[in-house]
Amino acid sequence: MSTFWSGWVIILTLIFLAIMIVVVAYYWKKNSAANANRTVDSFDGIDENDAGVPNLLLLSYLLAFIIAAVFLVLYPGMGNWQGLMKWQSSSEAASTSPTSLAKQISQVPNGDTSFQALSTSPEVVVAGRALFQTHCAACHLNQAQGQLHFPNLSDAVWLYGGSDEAIHHSIVKGRNGVMAGWKDILTEEEIENVSYYVASLEKNRIISEPAVKLELGKTVFDANCTACHGSNAKGNTAIGAPNLTDNIWLHDGSVEGIISTVKYGLNNLMPAFEEQLSDSEIQALGAYIRHQGNRQNEKLAALDPDMVSKGQYLAYAGDCIACHTGEGGEPFGGGLGFLTPFGTLYSTNISAHPTYGIGDYTYDEFYDALHKGKGKHGYLYPAMPYSSYQYVTDEDTQALWAYMQSLNFVNTRNEENKMMFPSNIRLGLLGWNIAFLNTDPLQYPADATEQWKRGKYLTMGLGHCSECHTPRNVAQALIEKELFQGNLIDGWKAPNITATELYQDRWDVKTLTDFLKTGHSDKGTAFGGMAEVVQNSTRFLTEQDVAAISEYLITGDKYNELDRSVPQLNPPGFGDLVPANVDIQTVELKPLSSNDPENEAKLYGLYVQTCGACHGKDGKGRKGIAPTLLNNGIIMHSDPYDTIAVTIRGLSPNFMEQDSNFMPMSSFNSVISDANLAKLISFVRNKLGDRTVPVTLEEVAGVRRDLIKGGYAGNIHATTTPEQNQPNSVIE
């Protein structure tokens, strides 16, 4: 502050203090002449007496004056006066003048002025932090952790290199990262293909697209992108072209975001500070950036590699990535929407980002979230399966914590939930926990094998199988006594997987283990949400752990007792209905009508015309085209819901194993009437699944209504309007 303005501040402050003294003295003197018994005015029957100002009030003013005067003498408050105590705020202390900062830098041992050496000086780091908060935090956030479009400066990944010279150049001269847009050069299909290919380069990201799409994308990449990003996509620090294989995304790393970047390009500007900062201040900034990097490195170095590896395995077992990754988004970045009867919930970012993720959680806070549904900022909705995760042991929780802390930062802000009142009041979830959260530990029978115990621990804990396969009450709490009896979710029926159902449908430990480990078995192929479970979770588990889960489910448990008195199914197949010389492609469909007997020949003709080309004339499937329907677990299942649903909505392949993938299944939504669909499914379930109870027209219509309401009917997982979903009875 200039001397002129400093003088004015001092004068005005002294005048204000003098006025305070005058006011107190005036009223103190006036009090001596006051007479509380004398009436000075009356109005509407109310008398105003000549009472003095309370002495307590005057004494309070006097005390305030004394405190203010003492403070202004001892501490800064009047212009440039620093006070007798020579006190400074932390920000003022940090905002060291260039001259004193240069002196502090010169006092670093051995005269080493590298950013790493300067980062060991507390004084220089404090000054650098203050400068960073002033000039850099708006973009890179207060701990240099970065955010969308602005890089994390505390990790070991640098667009232009992490040397002192490169960092110094960035601060002094700024950077202008430019990527050209390709919308006028590449076709929409080429942009989409190359975007999926780039996304597939990221470790741990599951891309459910056919191999040919990724191969076409690589062709586009090789022809157009390698000049900047290199043939191995590792980037080029000389021009700031990022490494596309390191799981770190400066800009939006979702497939949609990558498509936008490729299509429209980017222009990322960092301003130059050479006119604003002195050389000493630039050195202090570099020291602070190194200091933050050292802190992050120390944090990662403190993690036990074995615990991190174990935690990664447990995260696979818990299928964390499936829920905490948005559609096409970055792993663990959150943003996946869950439609509930009370509104829409969005999964949160659980990367190690200290602002958007859980990087600033303590272990105890992480434990409470996982086991008690109590997050750092409030109670969690039970869409987070803490009712199952509460069974995770302390040792496994610590391993999970270590792995989560090792994750890269994901710069994705958490979506705001859209819950209706009063469901949006999180405190109410405490009442939900009190009413519905069963905190009893898992019980193991005395005669249970170690494998069975392991299977129960994984199934009921991290695997949280009951969360999808068990019905819920109106409060969305699991109905414990109906464990594994099936539940409608995302337009599919998570099937009844009770021991009795599995026994009747002739599942055994081997077929169930194959199914969970690969997504394929003699009992069919995983699809829908279960395919995602295999993709993201069970295929990464050991054969022994998957077999343990299978043994637990097949054997049964409390509320899931195995009833061996139920007869096992034995599908007869099509038998003599399969002509040896039938050309499936040219079979003529015989019309069905309501008054025509449903003879097997006509029903088989309907099957051949609609299903036989892919699933085979014998229903045993065709390799690389469609799975078997004979002995298929869904065809044999007591509930025909999914069989009906798959014919109406179609099915997208999961692309889990390229050698055993199947083609997409088209929707028969507008191809076959509900009446004929009921007859066809009844016939197929009888011959290929040994189910004798016919599927009714009402059941088909009911499933169709569910799918239309959810937007699943027609096309493959496409949302359509109810008008588009009305059946067009081509086959009558």
UniProtKB/TrEMBL annotation:
Transmembrane residue ranges: 6-28, 56-78
Keyword annotations from UniProtKB, A to Z: Cell inner membrane, Cell membrane, Electron transport, Heme, Hydrogen ion transport, Ion transport, Iron, Membrane, Metal-binding, Oxidoreductase, Repeat, Respiratory chain, Transmembrane, Transmembrane helix, Transport
GO biological process: oxidative phosphorylation; proton transmembrane transport
Main localization of the protein described in the UniProt heading: membrane
Keyword ATP-binding: no
Domain Cytochrome c: 123-202, 212-293, 306-408, 450-557, 595-688
SUPFAM superfamilies xrefs: Cytochrome c
One GO CC term, this protein: plasma membrane
Compartments (UniProt record): Cell inner membrane
Recorded family membership: Belongs to the CcoP / FixP family.
Protein name listed in UniProt: Cytochrome c oxidase subunit III
The organism of origin for this protein: Photobacterium angustum
